[in-house]
Give the backbone structure.
Amino acid sequence: VQLQASGGGVVQAGGSLRLSCAASGSISSFNIMGWYRQAPGKQRELVAAINIGGSTNYADSVKGRFTISRDNTKNTVSLQMNSLKPEDTAVYYCNAVVLGIINKNYWGKGTLVTVSS
């Protein structure tokens, strides 16, 4: 399965962007799907995740501003980002996990989000 992220761009602080991640196959088998980000000089960090049941988890820094959703019929997971801040600037990566004896991790190529002040 391949993951293709899109929707990144340049936005002013306070603005919004919507990232989408399209899978080449069904996402119904992915136990967890999420978005990570990596800013220059920093480690990759979890931004938001959603499990197969629809439960979500967010980094404290984005709670109340970002919303993750998944559409199993369209095989997509999206991240709606509102009230963007310059510190949200990073490359955002889509991730999918199949839990098992050995977990399988899938990563998409990143999409750059730049928030100007």
Notes: The mean pLDDT is 95. The chain is about 0% helix and 55% strand. The radius of gyration is 14 Å. The longest strand covers residues 90-98.
